[in-house]
Amino acid sequence: MTPFTREAVEPRPLEHRAFLFGGMDDFLGTAVPFVREGLEDDDRSVVVVVKGTRLEALRDHFPGCVDDMFIDADAFYDHPVRTLRSYLELVKAKDPRRVHALAEPVWQAGWSERETLEWARYESLINEVFQDTGASALCPYDTSTLPPRILEHARRTHPRLVQDGGESESRRFAPPREFSAGVDRTRVFPTPQDSEYLPLTSHDLHELRQWVGDRADRHGLPGQDAQNLVTAVNEVAANALRHGIPPVGVRLWTDGPDLFCEVGDHGYWSDFSPLAGFVPPKTALESGFGLWTVRLLVDLVEVRAGWDGTFVRMRAGR
Amino acid sequence: METLSSVRRPVRELRPGDHAWLAYSGEDEQRHVVGSFVRDGLDSDHKVIYLAGSDDVDVPGMNGVSPRPGLLTVVPLADARRPDGGFDPATVLKVLASEIAGAEDGDFPTIRVTVDMTFVLERPDGLTELLRCERQLERAVCPSTRVTAICQIDRRRLTPDARSALAASHSTFVTPNPEFSDSVLQIVRTFSPVGLSLLGELDASRHMVLDEALNAVLAASRGEEIHLDLAGLGFIDLGALNMLADVAARRSGTGPLVLDSMPVQLRTIMETVGWHMLPGLRLGSV
């Protein structure tokens, strides 16, 4: 067997490290050698996704590099499931070269606890989705500005930590399935008393689509977002009718700029995985394509698979 | 297909007094539409008058079953052959008119007439001649409470002038019967390109009928690209994308399923998913 064949067959483990830094000098002290290491290795393809001022500083250090190597993190991190999909596309596009990414997730001060948790889940999912790609990701976390709970997420979602010039194992690391299950447990799940309800009794979902579409319009969702929501609700409802136990129905309510639709049935989703619909399928022919697409189409999907039934809540914002 | 003044109507909805035209794209479409017209007529004990090149012609829609004697009359074009070898449309029309008159004297509540008029167009000054024939047919059919007629024309031989003249001289433009039709979804065969046109909304409760219609198209196809015209589709569910990708995978090697005229909101959903997720499906004309 030639060395080339052996290398192609061997799984290439992912390196996923959180880089806890304080201030620009500390940042550049590790980020510059990391980028250089990738550039000097013909087997690797470098991507730099960091926030504005740090992006400019790095660009200055590598004046000879192509511009599309540098991506503004604010534009890239727009929606956890979509960002995961974009990264996977990037990894595929670079194959057989391995992606060598300096990847700084964005944390907005104005986010709800829920949104922060979904982005923490995203960091955790990286370990699952890219496990055998040979990619190397170094994720900068600014200890001088980020709140302690986000730094705690960093330790829980990265198997290794880089700090003060040294590297160590993260003792707080939680495997993705465990972390994701933890995120699901933190949900608040009351359905408002004044929500509207539509029972679903037939596989013909024309009435449901009209019902959701009308309310999405009235709420002021832009046309495409309304179409996406209708498609997502239709998918979850069709699934509940096929696999769930009646009665099946949809609750709908609004909260500020957000519109919520929750499809419920009385079946117990016994083999529910906290990773369901997060790991992109290879093609539409694989199972999991439906829920994955639903997660792409709306702002947030929350699944509760309990003894009292299965409930899938979808949120779309104005 | 541009039809100008004619009203589009599936062949099964033609009524006595309708003088319709069919602009077929090839033999498949011609036999599909005319076959429905002939078969439905014979099944309902209507008189069918079929003008053909010769009397041993393979009449479409027969399915190998002989009709009740007297129900089907094939009028061979050869009868109208002139000494110089050409055809005389006036003679053809005369034969046809006498057949219609004969049938009207008979016991038939409804009379179906169909003629491929393309041969007239091929004569010198063909269009003028064709329109003269059409006026004669119009006089025979329109006032009638018993006669329905379809004039067939090979679309490939039509100039824009001929097309508008024909549209002006027929009340109705005949289209294939839908493969499926209910209050939410309509599926119609297309022949150029080969495929289906979908109107309305497609969800899981109608996957089966789409699958059946697609299988019928695939069975009749000769390995060419299959096109789905989605201009009239307001909704497509994710399961249908999965199903289409599955159909495409089953006929791997014979070219993709092409999705034409996809409404922008549906296209955006496909783009969100990523076309690489949908192997065997391709976006066609926008």
TrEMBL record, chain A:
UniProt domain Histidine kinase/HSP90-like ATPase: residue ranges: 200-315
One Pfam family it belongs to: HATPase_c_2
Annotated MEDS domain residues: 16-159
Keyword ATP-binding: no
Keyword Kinase: yes
Any GO MF annotation of the entry: protein serine/threonine kinase activity
Keywords: Kinase, Serine/threonine-protein kinase, Transferase
InterPro entries per the UniProt record, alphabetical: Anti-sigma-factor_SerPK (IPR050267), HATPase_C_sf (IPR036890), HATPase_dom (IPR003594), MEDS_domain (IPR025847), RsbA-like_anti_sig (IPR047718)
Signal peptide boundaries: none
Protein name: Sensor histidine kinase
UniProtKB/TrEMBL annotation, chain B:
Organism (species): Actinomadura harenae
STAS domain mapped to chain residues: 196-286
SUPFAM superfamilies recorded: SpoIIaa-like (SSF52091)
Superkingdom of origin: Bacteria
PROSITE patterns named among the record's database cross-references: STAS
Protein name: STAS domain-containing protein
